[in-house]
Amino acid sequence: MFSRTCEHAIRAVIYVSCQSAKGKRCGIAEISVAVDAPESFTAKILQDLVKKGLMGSAKGPKGGFYLTQEMSECSMADVVRAIDGEHLFEGCALGLRQCSEKRPCPLHHEFKKIRSEIRTMLEHSRLGAFSDNLTNKIAFLKR
Asked: Would residue 115 count as lying in a domain?
């Protein structure tokens, strides 16, 4: 459903959000280990999210990646759009370019409903909302 890059971005944002809720900033190495992703790959993803305003970063001994309260209010859909664009919300289930209401693929009508439900879920999922589940070990980020 999500690209590999987007999966890593979501996991990294959730992890950083959890640490930010505790007043901590995280370095690349820590985030990479926590979300089970290569360090260089994680660094590129996080730099992109910082550029797009979904995450903050600071250099120096007390530096690292973090989410402000305002950033924590962004939706998971914002992260998906920042990394994968609108494809998840508008694309064809079979990857066809010409799929539309007038010329639907075999899965078009059912997938349209699923896409809508996914969009709604992601739009309503705030980045800062996952901290408690991770802290209480109700949810996990590693495979």
From this structure: no
User: Taking a C-beta distance cutoff of 8 angstroms, is the pair 66, 20 a contact?
Assistant: yes
CATH, residue 39: 1.10.10.10
With 0.70 as the threshold, say if the pTM is over it.
yes
Taking only the tens place, the pLDDT of each residue in 93-123 is 998 988 999 999 999 999 999 999 999 999 9
The pLDDT, as a whole number, for residue 143 is: 62
Residue 10 lies in domain? 4-85+126-135
Q: Is residue 33 a part of any domain in this protein?
A: yes
- Helical H runs in 22-137? 28-35, 39-51, 69-72, 76-84, 87-90, 108-124, 131-135
Number of domains present in the structure of the chain: 1
Of 76 and 142, the structure prediction assigns the larger pLDDT to: 76
Residue 75 main-chain phi, psi, to 5 deg: -95, 160
